[in-house]
Amino acid sequence: MAGPPQRVERIVERALSCSVRDCEQPTGGRVAETYLLDLDGDPGRAVCKLGGPSVRTGDVIEPLVLELVTETTTVPAPSVLASGHIQTEPTTRWALYEFRDGSLPTPFPAFGEGRFTIVRQIGAMLGEVHATHQFDQTGGLVRDGDELAVERPDGLWIPEQGRRLADRTGCDPGDWQPVLTHGDLFPGNLLATDGDVTAFLDWGNAHVTTAGYALARAEMRFVDWFWRAFSGATREQLRRELHEGYRQYRSLPPDYETLATAYKLLWLGQSVERLGRHTLSSRGRAQLRRHLRGLL
């Protein structure tokens, strides 16, 4: 471990009334500047994040999202110890989070039988968050004082296209109910111990989308993404586990089986469009490089 930046030391001293003994930066890509801290007080460990704007709106929303999720659900996610901002140009937002034990379940295909339990717990997390937080419209999340508000992002907004698709095909309205979702679920944003998820991390890209679209995206990232590594039977079992986990809190969207493939294709289209927009600015290119490092 190495010494922390001075501004991180000042944040910890003022917010937690203790000092940093050691500091480590994660090797994986993060949008936020992230530090794992060893403290000389209580708590003994914490995570400090500087910045980390949402790719959809540009606002730093993770502290507000995590306060909402940890206060209203049983989802294992880091609690917010303190948050604020540094008067720089532009303003830098910071937050201190609970340190959660566990390791990344990566590479996911090599994680053994535990991956089935993990995928079921991912489904349960999505089901609980979707059942708890529903909205009137889809969009990105922005800060409105100390609250969250929904705002339509710039560029192509695929979840809304999904809603129109469901409407045009005569699907049940429950398939396009706007719900809160994590926004960046993949194995690198989980911690697990002995096959159980101990934390869902990095909520900075949370947004409001349709339930079917969010479930299809998770299915893509934890099942279909590994089509070369998993047999057809293994993929089908993982799919069943994801759906059964979701049903612990909420029924599957009524026409999910009909629309799931279309949702996955729409997500791929939005991903390509977003990658293109990221290459247009230096900040976007830097975020893209960090994100790609986290995927590899």
Automatic annotation (TrEMBL):
Signal peptide: none annotated. It comes from the Archaea. One of its GO terms (molecular function) is transferase activity. InterPro entries: AGP_Transferase (IPR051678), Aminoglycoside_PTrfase (IPR002575), Kinase-like_dom_sf (IPR011009). Residues 24-250 form the Aminoglycoside phosphotransferase domain. Pfam families: APH (PF01636). Keywords: Transferase. SUPFAM superfamilies: Protein kinase-like (PK-like). PANTHER family: AMINOGLYCOSIDE PHOSPHOTRANSFERASE-RELATED-RELATED. This is Phosphotransferase enzyme family protein. It comes from Halovenus aranensis.
